[in-house]
Amino acid sequence: MKLVVQVKLLPTPEQAAALEATLHAVNTAADLVSAVAFDQQCFRNYDLREHTYDRIKAEYGLAAQAAQHVIKKVADAYRTFHANLRAGNVGAPGAKRRTRAESRPITFRPDAAQPYDDRCLSWLMQARTVSIWTTCGRLKNVAFTGSPEQLKTLAACRKGESDLVARDGGWYLYATCEVPDVPVTEPEGFLGVDLGIANIATTGDGTRHSGKGLNAVRHRNRELRRRLQAKRTKSARRLLKKRRRREARFAADTNHTIAKQIVTEAERTGQGIALEDLQGIRDRVRLRKPQRVTLHSWSFHQLGSFIAYKARRAGIALIHVDPAYTSQQCSACGHTERANRPDQETFLCTSCGFAEHADVNAARNIAARGVAGWAVSHAA
Ligand SMILES: [Zn+2]
User: What's the whole-model pTM score?
Assistant: First the structure.
């Protein structure tokens, strides 16, 4: 399977200046290529190369590989844009937004990411440095750092391109790695995972991963957003954008941590993982009005995909189950009734008297459905 390992570069001030100048140059060149593509309505990589390759090499001091990557980046951007047009994501034909988007070439931020291949970027894993092409010449000995796990994956499995990324004043390389598939171990039971708002994830063994920190950040940002949106100034917009990105990163970190704990627990106990099928989660959660705004269904999808990805790397069985009525069904006797759930936190079976935290009860139902689903799909 393919995965992306992120390492942080630790450039000296001179090296950082060279990296910055480079991103600036390649993205200015990309704007030029994009303008040519737009003027001539010519979007294929190969054709664009004929029109722009020599010119951007000469005018922006780009190395051959860099120039090719710039052209490919532009061609890819147009391919995505045209696919979005076809899918109706930019509005219906004739819509104002669509007309505006169609009436001018795609532009690139001065610090937009740039792909590097092995000819313009080499990795010295022992020394933990890279040597990287820039418009100011090749930089040698640019130090980088990452977690031990990341560095191990990088040393063993790095293959193909890496992206140079400038983010929040830092420099990063996103390196593509090709990790061998791990065969799935036959599970001994399933660990069910219930997703929610107060508790982002609850497992059948009673572990609750609280959403407190994340919800607090979201509330704070929502207040701030309200105040800033009223201002309508450029600096307010910039601050908003920064906050939004920080919130997204915090959510991603939280999801990574939760996913890791769940997968580690499944691995330790030899269980598979049963997740709710997230189709329709929006509708389900929409019922809980006061909390509606705190919900971002993409965040659940992200957690689901982190779990799926980590499970796959560990060879852990993963199954998605229909979550209908998992919150109203008794995990002890199977009796299903709305009255089983007197309040948000409590499950109390009106038939057999079984009592449990509502989310834990739901997680156990999900686990049971996982066991059943797995038996069906692996009957042969
Ligand atoms: Zn019961």
Answer: 0.71
